[in-house]
């Protein structure tokens, strides 16, 4: 969910009307020489920060075009392009799903229009993730984590060590504590977790870094595509898995994690505990987001969810973040609120 926290920014010219699909189709012909668009339609699921359209071409292809409307969206797009270029044909052949391929770009009003191949599938929501879908998701994530780290290293993307991941957690904890709004028992729970050296004994892997249910495109219960690669890096595998803990169906994370471990063939015994910690710290990040934006509504909401989490885990405070820990209360709500608050 860190990607969602980074998506807030000033809008390109305030009051600028949305670009129509026809306008975007014309831009696409500038971005891709020789492109012959025969039909265009709105492309849903991109939120309010991007103008987008679905394009049909005379040679039978289906393409997409996206133009950022905010500085944050442009930054996200730029990072996504770096990552997409790192995914060579050889890398893509190792992934059991499609990744949009860049076809061209054109400058526009201080930003740029990006034309990419269309990847078939319906975007997910957390509520629509079934155990069957979770199994396919677990396998898809395992394929990402099985990529060679040179994919990231060769293009200069971040490479975090286990100690770096631990330090990030400590920083979040300390900043949240400084607000004076996090229950002391939760702070102690998190402090015990970060002080547990066994938690951080893992081998960093290639991770997407910003996965949520909305990242995945599915047909039936099978993952067909994955969108959003702006946080591609070497880091903690738990970062790509923790969002499943927000499901109201406990069999979803259970099935997803099991499928992940089976596909990886390498069992990280502490990944479940780190995923729970990451999920709980998302509530702390939501609180910090509210304080940074000086939003009383967000801060109050975050405090309510932190107290709900405390009620849920109060019986486990002497055994911090056990593997069988229940999903963090309110994680799905945080994802929804972050999407809306733009």
Short account of what is shown:
This protein is of the alpha+beta class and 342 residues long. It is built from 13 helices and ten strands. The protein has helices at residues 2-5, 21-31, 71-86, 89-92, 131-145, 150-153, 162-178, 184-195, 238-241, 251-264, 271-292, 296-313, 331-340, and strands at residues 37-42, 50-57, 62-68, 102-108, 111-117, 122-123, 205-207, 216-219, 222-226, 233-235.
In CATH, what is the class of the largest domain?
Alpha Beta
Number of helices: 13
What structural category arises from helix and sheet content? alpha+beta
CATH architecture of the largest domain, please?
A: Alpha-Beta Complex
From the alpha carbons, calculate the radius of gyration and give it in angstroms. Answer: 21 Å
> Might you state the CATH topology name of the largest domain?
Aminoglycoside 3'-phosphotransferase, Chain: A, domain 2
Envelope shape? globular
Mean pLDDT across the residues is 88
Largest sheet: 5 strands, antiparallel
Distance between the termini: 14 Å
- Number of DSSP E strands: 10
Write down the secondary-structure element order. Answer: HHEEEHHEEEHHHHEEEEHHHHH
Estimate percent helicity.
40-55%
- How many domains is the backbone divided into? 2
Q: Strand-residue fraction?
A: 15-25%
CATH superfamily name of the largest domain? Aminoglycoside phosphotransferase (APH), C-terminal lobe
Residue ranges: pLDDT <50 for 5 or more in a row?
A: 1-15, 322-327, 337-342
- If strands are numbered along the chain, what order do they take across the biggest sheet? 1-2-3-5-4
């Amino acid at each position: 969910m860190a990607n969602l926290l980074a998506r807030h920014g000033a809008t390109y010219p305030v009051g600028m009307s949305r670009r129509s699909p026809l306008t975007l189709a014309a831009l696409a012909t500038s971005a891709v020489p020789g492109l012959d668009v025969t039909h265009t339609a709105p492309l849903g699921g991109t939120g309010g920060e991007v103008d987008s359209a679905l394009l049909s071409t005379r040679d039978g292809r289906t393409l997409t075009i996206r133009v950022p409307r905010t500085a944050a969206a442009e930054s996200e797009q730029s990072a996504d392009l770096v990552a997409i270029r790192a995914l060579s044909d050889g890398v893509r052949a190792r992934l059991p799903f499609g990744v949009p391929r860049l076809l061209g770009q054109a400058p526009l009003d201080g930003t740029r229009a990006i034309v990419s191949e269309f990847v078939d599938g319906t975007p997910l929501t957390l509520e629509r993730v079934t155990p069957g879908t979770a199994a396919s998701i677990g396998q898809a994530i395992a394929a990402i984590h099985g990529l060679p780290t040179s994919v990231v290293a060769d293009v200069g993307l971040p490479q975090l060590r286990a100690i770096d991941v631990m330090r990030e957690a400590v920083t979040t904890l300390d900043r949240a504590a400084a607000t004076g709004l996090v229950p002391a028992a939760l702070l102690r729970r998190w402090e015990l977790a970060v002080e547990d050296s066994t938690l951080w004994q893992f081998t960093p892997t290639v991770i997407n870094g910003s996965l949520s249910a909305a990242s995945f495109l599915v047909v039936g219960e099978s993952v067909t595509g994955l969108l959003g690669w702006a946080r591609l890096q070497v880091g903690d595998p738990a970062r790509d898995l923790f969002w499943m803990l927000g499901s109201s169906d406990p069999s979803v994370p259970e099935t997803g994690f099991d499928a992940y471990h089976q596909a990886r063939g390498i069992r990280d015994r502490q990944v479940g505990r780190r995923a729970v910690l990451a999920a709980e710290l998302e509530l702390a990040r939501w609180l910090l987001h509210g304080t940074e934006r000086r939003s009383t509504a967000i801060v109050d909401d975050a405090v309510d969810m932190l107290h709900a989490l405390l009620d849920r885990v109060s019986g486990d405070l002497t055994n911090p973040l056990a593997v069988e820990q229940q999903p963090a209360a309110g994680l799905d709500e945080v994802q929804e609120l972050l999407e809306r608050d733009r």
